[in-house]
Amino acid sequence: MNITTRLHLLEAIRRAEQAVTARTAADRAYTRATKAAADALTETRRHQQQLADTPDSDHTQHAEALEAAQKTYADCSRRQQTAKAKVRRTVAAARAANRGLAALYTPHARGRATGGQRRHAVAAGLLDELASMPLELIRAADAILVHSSAGKDSLVMLHRLATWAAQAGCKDKIVVVHCDLGDTSEWPGVRQLAERQADRYGLRFIAVDADGGLLGLVEKRGMFPDATRRLCTSTLKRDKANVLLTVIVAALGLDRQALIINCLGIRAAESTARSRKRGLAIDTRTSNGKRLVLTWHPIHALSDTEVWQEIAAEGLEYHPTYDALIPRLSCVFCVLAGFSVLVRAVRLCWALGLPLAERYEELEARIGHRFKEQCSLADVIKEAARIEAEEGPLTWRRGDAIRDQLGDDAVDDYLHRLALAA
Question: What SUPFAM superfamilies does the database record attribute to this sequence (predicted)?
Fold first, then answer.
């Protein structure tokens, strides 16, 4: 099976999945409409009974209430019929999409046809095959968006993708996208570093500004995000990048569906949730008839140590925040960070002369919402001050991140490579 056939199958699976999702949504809407109609009918009958039991002299008020109830019931009944019709349409569309998938896949099926197999199992097999052939996947793509935070994982992902694209002769397809959260959310120099990292490979770089950053989002909502409501990621990054995705597809000017690959530097070792993600997946939320969007995690299987080994071996420039032993280049104060990391972030702010800790503490007090359920920013700052009193200001050296992971010899070799690349 060639790559074109695999992609056609994935598009058929995407259509079938979206058709089934639409059918499920229609079923739920019909259930809600049916209940609303039943409730309205019950209310109408109650008013009818009240009217029947009321003396003629008091009929007016009950008659008006009955008329309003009857109108509500008529409206609910119309919505119920509309919802029922949509169920019929979506059931027919789902069946047609599944038949189309079966017809397309049957010639390639082993043992039995698609009708006897689960769509997600077929998709998983196809996606695993595509992930194992990066050069072919890159050649097949119309555009490749590399989402870069300028962090260590984005850096290694970018290096691998740029290397593969050069081998495939397709570097022009890559667009490096950086969502800039601003100086109230990010460490100094992040945007400039992301651009330098892209420039190293001669890749197109686009920075997307997130209005107000995390601080602005919290000001607007009156509360901080948390692990279950990560609006900082969806609002400040994903939604902004999706607007750019639409622009890029339009600029291609294709008279067919475009294949877009969104590349993210997430790894299984980072969290249980991320360990469940696949190396390559269909993004059904942003895919449509104009574009098939695949989400690719090229370094999903790498450990922390392997990431730093590649950075050291290739002489890749990373942000100095890592040398202060801050494990991730996320927001200065990330709601997902542990207490000890937040304490270290406060100390690093003080060492760099950044007033962010105090600004976040003031915001926390003003909106009356704790930074995290487990701790407030005030608690973090208090602990940072205690440690500073005992140990003095935070200090670090260039290469400490590599030293912490790989030892002194690796640092010397890395700094030598970095000097040669300058």
Answer: Adenine nucleotide alpha hydrolases-like
Tokens 């509309």 locate to 82
Domain ranges in the chain? 3-123, 142-296, 315-421
Cβ distance 401 to 308 under 8 Å?
A: yes
Collect all residues with Cβ–Cβ distance below 8 Å to 350 and sequence separation of at least 6: 357, 384, 388, 393, 394
For 193, other C-beta atoms within 10 Å of its C-beta total: 22
Average pLDDT for the chain: 89
Q: What is the pLDDT of residue 232?
A: 63
Cα–Cα dist 98/12, whole Å? 8
Residue 44: closest CA among 13, 70, 10, 11:
70
What is the number of alpha carbons within 13 Å of residue 402 lying toward its C-beta? 25
Instruction: Convert the pLDDT of each residue in 146-192 to its tens digit.
Output: 999 999 999 999 999 999 999 999 999 999 999 888 888 889 999 99
Q: Is the pLDDT confidence value at 111 over 60?
A: no
Whole-number Cα distances in Å, 67 to 40, 44, 200, 403 = 12, 8, 73, 79
Yes or no: say if 194 and 205 are a contact pair by the CB < 8 Å rule.
yes
Q: Choose which CATH entry (3.40.50.620, 3.40.50.80, 3.10.20.90, 1.10.287.3610) describes domain 142-296.
A: 3.40.50.620
Q: Which of 301, 304, 350 is nearest to 324 (CA)?
A: 350
pLDDT in tens, 363-375: 888 988 888 888 8
Q: How far apart are CA 5 and CA 24, in angstroms?
A: 29
